[in-house]
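DNA-binding protein (Lactobacillus johnsonii), 95 aa
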Amino acid sequence: MEIKLDADQEKELTNRIINLVKISVKQAIGSQGKPYLNRKETAKYFGVAESTIRYWASLGMPVANINGHKLYGKQSITEWLKSKEEPKKEHKKAH
């Protein structure tokens, strides 16, 4: 199936695509420059649900509490997660 667009439609579609790309890039870069994130940003950054961030905090993950507002340090969380890593188990082949 082929869709034909006139010049105005093509220009409008191109502009919409460009704007969507700009917004996506801005969102992706936005949290990269910030060392501390809110819970929603932290969940997105680590690719988990917000409830997982609350659960991790209950397990001892570092959380900065400023006047009742919780902030999560990307580096601190990464180090905390690394501290939870278990050594890779060697599997011996049975002969």
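The radius of gyration is 22 Å. Residues 7-30 form the longest helix (24 residues). ok done for today
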